[in-house]
Amino acid sequence: MALEDIVKRIKEKVSQEVEKIKQEADREGEEIINKARQEADKVKDELIKKATEEGEGERQRRLMRTRSEERKKLLALKRELIDKVFRQAKEKLDNLSEEEYLKWSKRLLLSNIDSGKEEILVSPRDKDLMERILVEGLDKKETRFLPELNEKERGFIIRKEGVQIDYTFSSIFSFLEEVSQEVEKIKQEADREGEEIINKARQEADKVKDELIKKATEEGEGERQRRLMRTRSEERKKILAFKRELIDKVFRQAKERLDNLSEEEYLKWSERLLLSNIDSGKEEILVSPRDKDLMERILVERLDKKETRFLPELNEKERGFIIRKEGLQIDYTFSSLFSYLEDELEIEVARILFGS
């Protein structure tokens, strides 16, 4: 429950901060984006106007330069906004009020300290603050707070039973940055693979536009406008369909990465969550038949909980597990985690890939 709770709260905090910063950035950047698009449209209009007087090769070169410049401006602005999101989110974490920081620390410590023999690694500036929690909320006389972290570090590391649980702000923020980098990596791969499709769609649209421009001198302005609108509509549908394909690919590849974790990574992930959630020793762990032996290795090697049982009740292809304890079910199956993250992150992924 401790891990699920902190992940949920971190995601809520970061989502709120991301949305707030995005709104501020949208307001600040709207004028820049509109101006860039207006300038690009102006150049395009001038090129179209001169198309009947210029050679096809020169017209294509001018259009490509215009698109390249516009794309560079938009990409630079997107990168600036993403960097601002993470920079301000980190500043928010580092500057929590003492009351917020104390409340956050107390909740996590109460969730993780049970034997009273744990060691809590903190920064020197937080040692007195943490010992207040020990006095006020915990009757664990042997728990020790060790000022071994960097002076500027916030958060703490819990040592218990040979395991370290890292709740430092730098570790939490590093995880969030890794998620952003992974999304950016998938985006770059999708850009490379999709460049030919996008270029082909644009070439087809340009071809139709060229035909309309050629006939513009013989047709009335009204008919020309209607044809251009139909062309733009068709082009927009193709680009929207391709964007949908890219978003689906992001989540498909992310799910494949989860499903294909190495045995070592999967064992490490499972061990950490089981150690954080098993305390009475009477829990039931629902797993897939293929994972039953793997999970029992954790029980034998890491947990001295003789009554804990692993039940092979999940689908053969399912990864992860479900913990039953005290009338509750805690679902750590990959399908459940991925379904939750997909619902939570689809809009954010679309924003990172394509902008607002």
TrEMBL record:
Residues 7-53, 176-218 form a coiled coil. The keyword Flavoprotein does not apply. Keywords: Coiled coil, Ion transport, Transport. The keyword Ion transport applies. One of its GO terms (molecular function) is proton-transporting ATPase activity, rotational mechanism. GO terms for cellular component: proton-transporting two-sector ATPase complex, catalytic domain. Pfam families: vATP-synt_E. InterPro entries: ATPase_V1_Esu. Belongs to the V-ATPase E subunit family. This is V-type proton ATPase subunit E. It comes from marine sediment metagenome.
